[in-house]
Write a structure and sequence with these properties.
Helix 1 runs antiparallel to helix 2 and helix 4 runs parallel beside helix 6. This protein is an all-alpha fold and 182 residues long. It starts with a helix and ends with a helix. The chain has 6 helices and no strands.
Amino acid sequence: MNLPNKITMLRIIMIPFFVFFMLTDVVKYSNYIAVIVFIVASLTDTLDGYIARKYNLVSNFGKFMDPLADKLLVCSALICFVSIPENPMPVWGVIIIISREFIISGFRLVASDAGVVLAASWWGKVKTVTQMVMSVLLIVDFDGTVINTIELIFIYAAIILTVVSLADYLVKNWKIMQDGNM
């Protein structure tokens, strides 16, 4: 297993720690520990991609697991948000985002069964970054009209980008699904 793939696996390993600190009050300021774990895990996404491209270590495992690790991290945060009554993330938004992730994962599985590896698109990457910034804002949960407005802007931007990236992905890859190999 190469270094970028190990970093991707580290991101997955960090998720239970994030969830633990997000949902418990075992230590004072556990939400700040949760946000630090979330930010570090999010930054590993940039790091593993950078290393993979710079040192020509791009692999099929990485193309599949890297976006999956992002999905696991963001979906874990979203599920945590809906369990917190005062959190502004709407349940319907969580359903849209998680549904998109299942659709794309299923699409990737079908493609991979035919020997095709589908990498993340530009829209997917922008969507992921927006979701991660939104998550950081919602984890920290500062009070104030301006902060609350910024949170709402990121929530709705993440939902819109989720739908746009899904449409982009399906349009760009529909031919692969229609190909006789699948």
